Each structure stands twice: as C-alpha cells, then as structure tokens.
C-alpha cells in the first residue's frame, strides 16, 4: 500500500489536534543538506513543542499512512534528513531545546532532542562536568540527530560514541505511543535494549524526543601535541606507546595527511600551519589526566621515547590554550577545505586497528587503476576510523569525474569489506548508503533489520528510505 | 500453536544432521540453578561444537517448533537457564570454549560462548591486557551467558556492563541463520544495533556463539581500601570526593552493611574481619591509576580529606596484595553467607545515585510493616545498584516466611519503581521477574519487546518463558 501525501486534508486534521502555529511550510534550510546531494521538494513542516505534540503527529500519520521525516540540526552527511519526493511532513525539533535537568552528583544531564550539542556541553561545564561528545558541527547538531545517527567525533577513543553516552530515552514510537524511558540508571536489565535499537536507527523506528546523557569528571589537566610521523604504521606505533604510557588518558588521536595541509594552504591560507613544509603524516594527540600529573611533561616524554624509536621525526607540545586551539584548528577546518576543493567521492570507513596501515596505501594503489586522484586521508585513526576522501588532481574538477564516482566508491568499499571493516563508521547509512548496506551487510542481520522495521513500523511512515529501502 | 516436545523422532532427525555424540541426556547440573527455585525435568541435551552445529539445531527446532533452552555456566540467579516442563532441548555451550584470537595491539579478544570468564581474564592478562568483567561466579560463568544477561559485577563503574565490553557477535538467529558479526571495530554505523538487541535478551532472540570483546590497558598501579562510614549518605559523599580526586581511576566502590559482617561471623568465621566491631557501613574502594601516580598515597589523601569532613570514621589502606585480597574476600563471600542464612526474598535493584541514601532506610521502614526482618544491603553503590536481601531474624527460618515473600518483593519493588529505579539491575529478568516486568515496565516498551519477539521468533522456540511470558 503506497504512502499518502501530507495534503491539506491531513494538515487540517493535524492542526485541529495540535497547539496553534505548530504546522508551517518548510524553509529552504529544511530542504538542503551540507553536501548538496539531496534536495527536498516544498513540504509542510511541524514544529512540536513536546513529546505529546510529536505523539499526536505520529499517531495521525500512522492512521493515514503519511511519511514523516525528522530533522535535528540538519548536519548529517548521508541524506538521512532529506526525502526527495513522496510529499512527507517534516518534523523539526527546533522548539524542543530544553536542558530539562542537570544532576551533577549523578553525572547525568537530561536534554530534549532539539538541544544543540554546544549548549549541552556548556550546561555540563557550568556544573563542572564534561559532556565529551565533540565534533566539527557541534554548534548546530542537535541531540536527537546525534543519537539517531550514533554520532562519533574526536573523543570516541576515550568516551565512546553517542550510544555510549546515553542512559535513557524518551521517544515516540511508530504507533504514536510515547516510551517514557528517561532513566538515570547505570544498570538496568529489564528486557530488550530498546534504547540502543533507536540509537543509530536514524528515525526509522521512532523519534527520540529527549535523552538522559552521561557526564564525566573534567580532566584535571589537559595537553595537546602534534607529532610528525613517517607513515601510518609509525602513527599506530606511536598510539600503542601512548596507550602504554598514558592508559585511558589519551582522549583523541587524529591522523592528518600532507594532502590535508596542502588543501588548507590552497583554500584557507589563514589557518596557521605548525610545520612548514608539512610532514607526510601528522598526528594530533589530546590527553586529559588526573590531578597530580603533568600533561605537558607526559607528552614530552612520549615524544622523546618515540623519537628515539624512530617513529616520530618532529613534534610540538602546546604551551598554552591558544596554541592547543591552533593545533585543533588545523584538524577541524579540513572538512571545510575539502568542500572548497570538491571531493569526487567521500568515504567514512573503519577497519580493525591492525589493518589501518595496510589499508591506506592499498587503497591509493587500487584507485590509481581508475585514474589520477588526490586522496585526503584523515581522521580518528585511534578508533580505526578514517575519512578517506578522493579529489581531482589540480586542474581538474569533480565534474570531470562524474562517471568515476561509482567505481571509486566501489573500489574503496570493497577493500574495506575485504579487511573486515565498515563502510559507515560514524556518519550512518541515511539514503546515501542504502545500496552499500545491501551489498556488504551480513544477510542474516539485514533480514533481521527488515523484520524489525516491518514489525514496529508496519505502515513504513518513519523516515522512509533511510537505512532500509522504502517498501512499496 | 503449541510447542512440540523434543521427542525421540525429533532427536533422531537431529542426530542425523549433527556430528556423533552431539545429543545426550542432561545431567543433574543442567537441571538445577544456584538458588534452588527452579528444577528442570529430565531432558535431552545438545553439546554443539560449532556455530554450524547450533545452526542445525535451531533450524530443525524452528521447523518442528521444539523449545530450546540455552545454557552457559548455569550461574544465573533468575531462572533464565531452566524451563520447567514443556520438554525442551537444552543447548549447552560447554564444548565451545575456544579463545579464537587475541589481538593485543587492537585491545581485542575473540572468545566462543562457552569460554569461562576466568579463562578469558587469564588470556587477556597473558597478553598484558585487562578484560575487566569481574564477578563472584567468574570461575564458572561463561561468555555467552554473561553477554546474554548483560552481566554487571564490581568493575561496571569504570568499564561498563558486559554490553559495553562487546564489539561484535556471532550468533544463531531463531531461523537458524548464522549472523557473522564478529567485527573488531570501535565504530560501525551500518544499520540497527542487533548486537545490543541480543545482549541482554537472555537467549530469547537468538543464541550467541562467539564474541569479540574489548580489552583495556592494565592499570600501572592499583590500590584497595576499606573505609567505615556512618551511613549511606556519607558513602555517597565519599564517592563524590573519590571521583573528584581520582576521576576515572575509581574501579570499584562497594557498600557493605553491618549485617553482611554479622552473617560472615555467623556462617563463615574463617573470613578475616578487618574492623571489629564491624561499623554500621563499610565501603570497599579499588583504584587503578596511571604510571607516575601513587595509589596508596591517593587513597590515604582521600581518607584524610573525608575524615576531616566527617564522612568517614575509620579506614584501612591495603599495604600488600594479600591484604587487598583479604579485603575483597569480605565482599565476595557475602553471597555465600547469604545462601547459608537463607533469604526470604532477594532483590537486585538500582535507583538513581541521588536516591540511594533515601532508598535504604525507607525500604527498611516499609518492610517493618510486614514483619521483623534482617536486611542485608550490599553491593555496587557507585552504580546505584544494591543487593537488598531480606532475611528472617535469628531463631526464625525462611520457611516461616513463605507467605510473606510476595508482599516483601512487592514492597521493595514498588519503592524502587517510585524512585525511578530498576527491579533488575544486573541479574536480568529470566523467569523470576516476568511478572515484575509486566507490572513495572513502560507499556510502550513492553509492547515493542513483544512485537520484536513475535517478528524474530514467530514459533516462540527460543528460551520460551524467559524475559517475556511464553505465548500459547
């Protein structure tokens, strides 16, 4: 049975059940996404103020079989927030931004789905606590979307993905029922893990309306360093040494290839380059340590040991907050430089840590068979997660390579799959990677996913086409 | 449609599909559980050697609608491993005990479902790594059961539940299909979280056959202390001070009430009592710290600060491994003392950390209205998880209180529920708490659980009656 459009009759019935001014038309920003691959058609937009409003919306949509597309900050990179065609109702969480409670003594915070990540971080900091989720789009990304996509970022190494930071959820299920699951418990073994099923389901099994989030002690002392390494294998050797010395004190361990520095020089010359010329590979390390330890001294000792072993060739330990910020600026602005250069194909992949050093050159070698490209390989190497993005050589544009895109993606993803990796490490499946999921996912798991979707959302109204192909 | 018995015809067809000597009769140990509440009838037993064997068993059972009951080490406390009646086939993982691989550089280990926890800990240690899951039954409990029940234990505070220690699974789904999900990835956002759905489902959605597990750096220095506190509120104050001083260095924070010491003196007088007379409340603290720190000094400084603030009245910092072992002996043997005394009703509950100090006396006050009892309240107070067990007063036996059991359980669980807590913090639901789940679980979540069970296991063959009531 096909879905029905969110037409005037539906909207009129919906208005009658909701507070005034809940239904509007979508603005341009609701119909675009950062990479410009998807564009939604003009659509109605719901701006609920509460889980109850969301429940009313979902209940009527389920009855009438109208497609619903949830939107948080709209920063997703895989098109999960944009449905092209099908006349859906967009459900925005822009009005549900409250931090409902902070429990510093419990290291817990409760936020609504529309709370912006930076605001949650600030609320935690105000209570002398750390909410460790941190990524480039933290000024716009919202909690509901971050959880629905199980967002990663730079602190996963130490604190885990978004999934690991969530203790409980309030969510509206595909029937319109509200699940009141905002528990503040570290241990709760009462039945199936619905929380983790909704996290990462990208709105296809229910809409998260609020979450209880884990907070952490703020590290007493922090330190940041950049170290030049000859190759990715040396970066992993350095990581092993860092873990052996500093244990869980390593908060971030990011890899930056020379191409990243080249792109910054080309497109954003105002960004300070700490090494000139740029080394083949650079590692950015953040540490957070307990009272009584000296982070700078620890990083300097790590450098000395690694230098003696030949796995680092140069290094800078930040001497101030400003310098630490400058180091991070390099890493954080690479995605912007990438956009200005224009990728032919971008890949958010992970492989087992032991396979990383082989993956990077093997990928480049295989891509050479398709054509001449520049690969900007950077990211969360400590997690085995790289952004492995393929660009035209200077003088050519992405438009020149339109016909190569599928072959490039296939080449990179096949290699990832051979190595036991994931073709979506932290960005999710959205609509971009539905085909990849069908190609690479274990058939037994894929069948189970489809059975769960059919059982919980029999009408197929919840973000149709995201994660799984929409049924007719 | 009712289930069919695992009769001779079924077993004969099954034998034809499996290697020799896979099907036997269950021994006594397969039909009992530690608290003696459930006892299975004589039943056939399958001893598969591989996921393929398990797959054959499940496939035929699904076709013939024969109930299957999985068994690991049989240490579960809620009857998840025993089906009374219904003529099931018991599936034991005693032969699937291999540690398939250790990847020290990746901090990952792959073990089969039947591997005993202590053996996994030892394999990690041999590679200079830590597998932090630790609980009293670690000498018998097996990985498959530990994951299926999302086991907790004493290190959850720092390292999380069993769920948090698992990167990937191999499992046989209710159709008999094998899910090959043994990934070694920290980040993998390719679809619904089937791993976490199977973890904690107690075999009712599939049988785990192997898992990739996370390892950690072994803390460079460790320390153990016992501190006497006047009341539970002071224990929580001490915990807050410990976290502020030591951050994530606190590995375990356990509460022991005076009743626990009384029970040890009464039943296991050989256990050394560190304080005599026993204080009203004692806290056992374990810390694990980075190179360059002094764990003993840190614990002594914590004691000095807390003593000055009036929240501890006495303390002992272990001066040797032996002494640390003695301190832990007190904590670890309390469950044995409890069994020797004989509880009327045992409760594995959690409440938000901020509610713990009110919960303990309020529970005692409410129980007084039912009768005179001794409450042994002990456990993982840092997680908000207490074992709140109710015993007869001296001179009376549990048999004298048979008629009080339901009222006691209801009294404790109602209070937990009022306080936003969980009636099963770490032991699971099994068959013991199916009623509680129906009473206290959010109806929207419970409905979703039932829909998932019906969709994935339409024949209802996977551990029927565990977690959810068996359908007719």
Automatic annotation (TrEMBL), chains A, B:
Pfam families assigned: FAD-oxidase_C, FAD_binding_4
Keywords: FAD, Flavoprotein
Reported cofactor(s): FAD
Residue ranges occupied by any FAD-binding PCMH-type domain in the UniProt entry: 38-218
InterPro entries: FAD-bd_oxidored_4_C (IPR004113), FAD-bd_PCMH (IPR016166), FAD-bd_PCMH-like_sf (IPR036318), FAD-bd_PCMH_sub1 (IPR016167), FAD-bd_PCMH_sub2 (IPR016169), FAD-linked_Oxase-like_C (IPR016164), FAD-oxidored/transferase_4 (IPR051264), Oxid_FAD_bind_N (IPR006094)
Any one GO molecular-function label of the UniProt entry: catalytic activity
SUPFAM superfamilies referenced in this protein's UniProt entry, alphabetically: FAD-binding/transporter-associated domain-like (SSF56176), FAD-linked oxidases, C-terminal domain (SSF55103)
Classification via Gene3D superfamilies: 3.30.465.10, 3.30.70.2190, 3.30.70.2740, Uridine Diphospho-n-acetylenolpyruvylglucosamine Reductase, domain 2, Vanillyl-alcohol Oxidase, Chain A, domain 4
An example Gene Ontology biological process: respiratory electron transport chain
PANTHER family linked: BLL6224 PROTEIN, D-2-HYDROXYGLUTARATE DEHYDROGENASE, MITOCHONDRIAL
Similarity annotation: Belongs to the FAD-binding oxidoreductase/transferase type 4 family.
Protein name as it appears in the record: FAD linked oxidase-like protein
Origin species: Roseivivax marinus
């Amino acid at each position: 049975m096909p879905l029905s459009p969110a037409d005037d009759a539906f909207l009129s019935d919906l208005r009658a059940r909701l507070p005034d001014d809940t239904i509007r038309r979508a603005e341009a920003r609701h119909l675009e996404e950062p990479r410009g691959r998807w564009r939604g058609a003009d659509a109605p937009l719901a701006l609920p103020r509460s889980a109850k409003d969301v429940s009313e919306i979902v209940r009527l949509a389920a009855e009438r079989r109208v497609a619903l597309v949830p939107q948080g900050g709209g920063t997703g990179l895989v098109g999960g927030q944009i449905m092209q065609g099908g006349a859906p109702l967009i459900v925005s969480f822009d009005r549900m931004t409250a931090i409902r409670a902070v429990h510093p003594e419990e290291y817990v915070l409760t936020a609504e789905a529309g709370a912006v990540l930076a605001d949650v971080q600030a609320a935690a900091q105000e209570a002398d606590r750390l909410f460790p989720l941190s990524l480039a789009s933290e000024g716009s990304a919202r909690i509901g979307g971050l959880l629905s996509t199980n967002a990663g970022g730079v602190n996963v190494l130490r604190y885990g993905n978004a999934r690991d930071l969530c203790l409980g959820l309030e969510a509206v299920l595909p029937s319109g029922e509200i699940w009141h699951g905002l528990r503040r418990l570290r241990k709760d073994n009462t039945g199936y893990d619905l929380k983790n099923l909704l996290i990462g389901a990208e709105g296809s099994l229910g809409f998260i309306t609020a979450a209880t989030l884990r907070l952490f002690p703020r590290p007493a002392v922090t330190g940041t360093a950049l170290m030049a390494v000859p190759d990715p294998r040396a970066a992993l050797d350095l990581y092993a040494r860092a873990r052996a010395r500093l244990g869980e004190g390593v908060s971030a361990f990011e890899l930056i290839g020379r191409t990243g520095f080249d792109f910054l020089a080309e497109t954003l010359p105002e960004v300070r380059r700490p090494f000139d010329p740029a080394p083949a590979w650079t590692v950015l390390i953040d540490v957070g340590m307990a009272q009584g330890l000296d982070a700078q001294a620890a990083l300097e000792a790590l450098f000395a040991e690694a230098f003696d072993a030949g796995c680092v060739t140069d290094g800078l330990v930040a001497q101030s907050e400003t310098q630490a910020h400058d180091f991070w600026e390099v890493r954080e602005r690479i995605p912007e430089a990438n956009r200005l250069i224009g990728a032919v194909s971008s890949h958010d992949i992970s492989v087992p840590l032991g396979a990383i050093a082989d993956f990077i050159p093997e990928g480049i070698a295989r891509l050479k068979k398709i054509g001449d490209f520049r690969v900007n390989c950077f990211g969360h190497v400590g997690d085995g997660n790289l952004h492995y993005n393929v660009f035209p050589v200077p003088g050519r544009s992405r438009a020149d390579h339109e016909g190569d895109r599928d072959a490039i993606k296939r080449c990179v993803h096949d290699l990832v799959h051979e190595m036991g990796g994931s073709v979506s490490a932290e960005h999710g499946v959205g609509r971009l990677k539905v085909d990849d999921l069908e190609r690479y996912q274990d058939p037994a798991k894929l069948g189970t996913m489809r059975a769960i979707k059919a059982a919980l959302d029999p009408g197929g109204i919840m973000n149709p086409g995201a994660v799984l192909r929409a049924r007719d």
